[in-house]
Amino acid sequence: MKKTNIFGVIFIMAIMMFTSCLEEGTDSDSISDVGVIDSLSSPGKVMYLSENIYIYSEAGEFADYKNGDCCYVTYALNGDSAMFSTNGYYTVQVLESGKIDQYDLLSGLTDTSKLLPNETAIINPVYGNEGRYVKGRLFIRQQLNSLQNQQTCWNLSYVPDFNDVEKGSNGYRIYDVFLRATITTEGSGTSGSDYVTNAYNMSDYFDSVANIEKNLGNEAFNIRFNYVSAIDTVNSRMTWKQSSGVSILVETILPEE
Predict the structure, then answer these.
(1) What distance in Å separates the CA atoms of residue 112 and residue 238, rounded to the nearest whole number?
(2) pTM for the full predicted model
(3) CB 3.0 to 4.6 Å from 61: which of 45, 57, 142, 185, for a disulfide?
């Protein structure tokens, strides 16, 4: 049976893992996640993970981030989880954190017949067909070959025409986006496979698509990534490839009031 990957389901699974750790009394367990920096009137800087789950560090690890920064975090729960109902956040011990590059979704397609300056091929646009949608940002892990210390810029665009939309094998309609990567700083050494987590600002786009699908009575839609999988630099040619569609629940984008 073909497996359908639904961001909404993955999103719920992450919450279940978090809740399970709470129930098991997990002061020593660590959790890895992604989220968006926000501020509460008290205690101040926090990280928003999902479903109104905020985490706070008394050591101040989030203090230097700006509101809206996308970050990864590994943390251990600290103290009584029941305090959440009083404080509105969980106090945690942050073991590691860092910023994740954030990109805007571009309306209007780049010329797919021409190479971009310093363009590089992509191995996998959505590694594991998994992602998280948090505060309008789509977090996805992507794979490419790169040199040590290479810096890469990512470009995600779409055609703003939703009239000619095909239906996927799972019955959900398919919306195409186009992913490209360019090298901004050359690396050195031996080339190797690199995995990068990026965050894309998809709020307006997903709201538009989800409303279309909701009005049609559909519970989900597919996002299909078109990406440059190979480059012939001698002849300035590239090979485009399509990922299998990943499905997103409408209720994840437009929760019922």
Answers:
(1) 9
(2) 0.86
(3) 57
